[in-house]
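Example 3.2
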Amino acid sequence: MGQIKGYVEIDLTKTSGEIESIRVDGSEFGLESGGDWARDRDDLELCAGFLFIAFCEGFDLLLSVSIHGNSNTDYNLRVRENDLEEFEIQKVVITEDELDISNLFPNDDVDVD
């Protein structure tokens, strides 16, 4: 499996009303333990899904990717709010998604022994 490249821009609205912009690098996303599944479909192509998480202060970014054969079939980026109050965050908004998953699933089989 390759690495997620690019970045996500986030606007954090603080409880004071101040807006803070942060950037989360794609390399901060890690495959969640138990966050993958796979099955063979009738067409003998692999169908699989993966959940990657970037842990941030007060919230997490969840990236769900599904593949069928060699094609990405689903891509979903969302925010999971955890402890917003503790970090004095009122709202989290994804303002720019520049993540690159094009080399996440290389076509070549890799021996990982």
